[in-house]
Amino acid sequence: MPRQLLLIPLVFLLAGMAPMPLVGDQWQVRGRVERVDHDAAGDLAWVRQLGMGPILVQLPQGTDLPEIGQWLEAEGLRQPDRQGESMAGDIRQWPVIQAAGVQYGEVSEGVAWNLIIGLVAGFLILVGVCALRPNRHTRRPSAVEDCDWPESEEITDLPVDPAEALAELARRADEGEA
User: Which residues pair with 71 in a beta bridge?
Assistant: First the structure.
């Protein structure tokens, strides 16, 4: 496999492991909306980026609320983490971004079509690579096929007893008949 193909998954892995921006830094978030809440500070969208946990996006005042599963892209300043109870009952901290601008995309129907298309494409590439490789498991001719065995009609005059038949074949071989 070419090295370039090996680097592609590495790039995505490293992109998911990028360090969080510091509080007060400019930050851009892209992901799917998992949940929408309202608190004293305003509307919050829980957004999940590829390879990361949820990020709380503080929506600007007067912005329409996103739908669950909708693609959201926001840019703004990183705020201090918020602490709260997770759905599992644990006390956790979530990164927060105070969005200056928000853009919405299409609503997901719960199926990750990009993942499905990627898996199908990967499967087709694998099938193509296997089809181009020389087949190492080709049927090799066996030693039996290479021998000049006498036709069944030639040996019908042998005795029925196996020992006598072998003796007869040995005699014929010595005489050069068989």
Answer: 32
Domain containing 56 equals 21-108
Domain count, the chain: 2
Q: Decide if 61 is inside a domain.
A: yes
d(CA 169, CA 177): 9
Q: Which two tokens stand for residue 10?
A: 């590495």
Whether residues 40 and 98 share a domain: the answer is yes
Which residues of the chain fall short of a pLDDT of 50? Answer: 1, 178
pTM: 0.49
70: which 2 tokens?
């909708």
Q: How far is CA 59 from CA 20, 46, 73, 134, 156, in A?
A: 20, 10, 11, 58, 96
